[in-house]
Amino acid sequence: MPDPVDPKAFLTLVELAIGNMYEVEAIGELLEQKGVLTKDEIIALAKELRQKNPQTKPPTSSTTDPSLQRLQRRRTPSLINSWL
After folding, report:
1. SS3 content of the chain, % helix, strand, coil (to 5)
2. Nearest 5°: CA angle at 80, between 83 and 10?
3. Dist CA 14 CA 71 (whole Å)
4. Is 33 a domain residue?
5. How far is it between the farthest Cα atoms of the chain?
6. CA separation (Å) from 21 to 17, 26, 47, 62?
7. CA end-to-end span of the chain
8. What is the pLDDT of residues 10-49, one digit of tens each?
9. Can you give the pTM of this predicted structure?
């Protein structure tokens, strides 16, 4: 019989998304520091990728989902002003 799984051991989707965001931000800043890409190039590439995959566009702020509205209100200035 498998060991019981502790529900606290799982990350929520929000925790995973935030962790992923910080990792992507760190990679982007490192590429910029090394002179590989500029912020403008990274943003342009991200926009291009979103256009190629329209189904992956993030929801707009007019979304009526209360959980998304709650998350949008919790943004910190550092996340709002991030490079991407």
Report:
1. 65, 0, 35
2. 95
3. 9
4. yes
5. 53
6. 6, 9, 16, 22
7. 46
8. 778 888 889 999 999 999 999 999 999 998 998 899 899 8
9. 0.51
